[in-house]
């Protein structure tokens, strides 16, 4: 974003893209009630209603408030209510209380979206400067991130309800019936100096993926698929959660303090394992990738099988050579299972993959200029990088340079385990 | 409740009373959206939807499940979801998460109410045993308590929204315009042995008001009205919140730990005082009683003016001799102001009044028999008694023997300050 | 203390009494190291060193600083360091950090004591005004309270050390060998109007015991002895700690949150019960009174046996009629066992006894005048009264009007269970 | 440690080195009382007594218990009491309670040390296998780490005492009188592939420094000295602590939650700045390096001056080319000031230097074999690397490959700020 992006798209294309992304956000709540859209079952998640409002606030604040002369603010209270974390913009409503706001109502928020949409399209219909194009592009990528968040958050919000509500219904015939997987293969990579990151020349990239730079990668091998539920169950059944041996010290403290004995959405009921999904409670599919694990769990599992997690550079290198195909993308909100035909599979279409890299700036990193500079840079501490993408990520929001990041204890995103090893 | 109640009412009267109380609960949400009814802005309060469901669960659990032969449970999940605190019934859904349930929806809960209403009326239409009459009476009194709680909780839930939503609208002409009050007078009472409590002979009474027993009361004097906002403001302006002198040790620790500098709903904005009400933010009415004060605040204020809080026995004695009139009861959801014509006023129609009595059993106290025995008895520690009633209390739910109770730090109920003194 | 105390004692007697009390405090640490005297294993307890300094600070602050013309402060830093909770005197060092002060050393504190002793005796040798006599008397009673606290606190401080250090050694022949007790008898008391409290005419009494006033007590019966370990074990063995039935709501929450399954100092090791004592770990003596129980535990046990705890007025009435004898006072730091010859025994020489009375002011209560007024009054919320005395209490510090008070969850004092019942 | 270390030293040399290191630990408490040695003013620090015992426990557990046939354990309780965090060895006494152990006494611990010393020397006098040499070397390096910790912890333990005790005394003539510093110069480094880490061929190195491997470093410039107190004061005086602009998001949350407005040991008293030191409270020396800053503070300061922190690879590269001289090492326990003659100074003899590298394994990292494998590896999450060394570090414990690590919020170690920049 700090570099000029040369006319990536034409005006009409941009307007159509804008409309399409904005419409998709709304489609995500088509099966939800206003009550559903207000849920906030822990401080890390936000109500769907809030996501819908905040993504509009983003365009209002960074585009309309700056680049639209006659723009009249929809509601001055929203400046605080829907500011997520931009101190440069001003005060923010307390994050953990977002679920305690019934006003504005969902209907009010939808009206707000409509108002913003019209105002943005009106700006786009006059003159698109490179600056405006940049902020539109950032805003749409931002909205796509929130689309994935909406799906993650709804799942969490429903998960604590003992009724286990389903976000969508699943016909029995749709339930994936693959039940086993071929053994993991480790693909070798030689030492190399590789290009990491992007200069956002031909494709949008966030500031945290920039600049493109060279990294020396040591010989390693990389698993051809993600760890499955069956494999992870092996760890559980080997006293994985009651023996500190394989855990990082902070990880062991975390599972002790929270009495964790299994991944976030797993339930052991009357001698059988289930997993909470967007389709309600389903029997645990042993061939599906282990998902919703924390970094601590991923790291402990890797140690258990004498492997380790890859660095984010190893991951990007592997993805450069085994370009992820999105063709296998299912229409279900369940992580895709391994495709045995792929040399290296499940790179972007199944679960995000914890790396052993801390989320830190690349050499030469510069935040986006202006108030949107808080977008990524200020979170560069205490978090770990996840690479890839997941079944909830909008398809055109994926790229091999993408850096996702979460705290090591978090697990409500679709986070899985890719193994790696030092090449011997 | 432990005593037999002789046919207080006839069958039709009972059915009409049942319908009327149940209908009133629903009327309280007539101006609210489903989103409003789901709010739970702190663990102490519950969503309106939850109150509507729990009061139905009460009849289902203690009446239909026991006394109705063919009763079919509406939804077995509700047994846990809407159990407040009855360990004898079983597990309970986590109190602090009640606002995180979008399902059942408000519509589902209203259907549940209808189903319960029909089932109860059907029971009442067959044969009313004394036992059934007792449990109906208890259930209706229980529901009336929750009606007051609904109004308290809605107020709190709206109060943290910076938009300050109004539960109801108030015409400018309705705003109370009394701005000053005559000085407090202290009415003397001689030493006496008085009857305290009720045997529930002619009127329903909770187990905690029983049995009627004699108490020796020492000479005291009792304020003819409640402390006003103007008077309480004098305490604030005398560094009341920055000087430990008048505070109980626990109270001082509480206001320090929570940075309290004023009562719960007061706001100081641009040099003026406001109070959040069911009508949104209103200028602080100096003649109105100070309301939403904690026991710690009430006790500190009393010390500040060289007075003390009355015991619950002194309060009951005063109320016996100055029977509270409910005629002055306003239709507004604002505490009534002092009526200078009353010898002792504002006993039940304005704010509950903190007493200096801990909530403990009366001599000879016995909990209601059966599982409903958890109703009152198990809360007899750490709480203080409030007496009287408030503008939110259903009118026919008041009596001079009524014992309300809250923790000393709580303030989201309509709690005001009645002063007393040792008679010298 | 608010009343004039007429020459209770002569000058020499007072000086001797002063010397004797002060000396006894020092004797309590004769078997302890400087390291032992610095321990503070939880915020509720204080290091022995701190007690020795604070009781000297009390005389310095309330006597020497006010009544001694040429008194030179020993060390100005001590004003803050050894102020317990007197906001009227000024700031206080953070209570929970008292164990984190190695300077002043124990030797410094002993020198401080000597300095204060000399200064006080010098004041007493000149002229004793009634005011001075009052503050000396208060200071010595205050010191006696701290003597009991020192013994309580040392026990707690040693209890968390897995080595289980012994404060004193016990010869095998000294171990009490009584192993069983006669069944509890309930002694009846008729309704009466009784005198409660003291006017401090012939004997010192704290402000919280004053004034003497009449109370109407209803018919009750009162256990002739305390509940034994054997009896309490019956409660444990009947799933007492895993069933909410008999617990107050706050009590159940407390034992759940803290995973409590037995009284504070009990240990179950290899199938046998032990109790940590001033003599290290001893096998649980089944005939000894259950000690170190919280109010919640006492209340749950009483409910378990269909009894209740007495009110503090019932306790005082029983003690008036069955004057406690201190003759049976053992020299061991273990609660005395029941003496079957006593009509009502173990009133003051064994364990303090939880009552069902909240710690609140008596009618007409006035705090001591001046800064020492914070002594008792400001703690009159959230605590329950214990009556009697215990084996750790200095013998001449006992009286039937004495009101001890602790929070319901606390158990590091010698707190036992006296049962009572409504007389039927 | 995972590699064989060829006879680094002869037997006598090893014994002498052992004696010398062990003696130095004891010398650190020569001016402390037993009370001082028991202090633990926060959970992160340990009592000096505990350090003295734990470093002996280390030899007992990893050497004597394994390699000495007839070794008789000194006290079986110590296995738990002085185990820091080795789950492979067994249970550990609760870390935060170490200051609550008066037994064993300091004298007991010194006797324990003597016992261990004799047993170790006896082993060394028989036959030194490579394994034994390795564990001795590890144990001595471990002890040297604890020597620095002892000095850090004593400083913290004294710092919360309002008396501000001095660990050592300082003559007025010893007070450093340098008051100003030349402006920072940035030294340029070109892109290079460099060797990072050690194979422990000629010098001991921890497992976390291994293996030696190549890293590609991008062009950068590196400050010739550390940031001074004067410079850091400029940040404070520019509203550094009240403006979120330069802070990482977690850092801003941390200083808000803890009300931080200055570095850990700074005090602003009557308009003047002081710093707590091993010599008590001293006026803040403006020319001295800013010390005891957290990673958050270091990062915010760097942003404030448009710079950044170096990576640990940049730091090691700079140190390779500007070999740190220890000649300027003062005998004072105060960070050395900049030596203007050095091209790049203060590398190891002043303060540790926060890097912008997370503490993670090197490619090919393997923990030490056996139970000591918990030494370093399990802490590789959530911490940041500090490089260099500080004035408290034993002189022969320094090397350019050394990786120190702390959580970003911690500041009780001697942590300073080295600036770097991308080379433009």
UniProtKB/TrEMBL annotation, chains A, B, C, D:
Domain Sulfatase-modifying factor enzyme-like: 196-321
Keywords from the UniProt entry: Iron, Oxidoreductase
GO biological process: ergothioneine biosynthetic process
DinB-like domain residues: 18-149
Any one Pfam family match given in the protein's UniProt record, by short name: FGE-sulfatase
Metabolic or biological pathway, per its Swiss-Prot or TrEMBL entry: Amino-acid biosynthesis; ergothioneine biosynthesis
This protein's record includes keyword NAD: no
Keyword check for Oxidoreductase: yes
Name the UniProt record assigns to this protein: Ergothioneine biosynthesis protein EgtB
Protein species of origin: Pseudoalteromonas translucida (strain TAC 125)
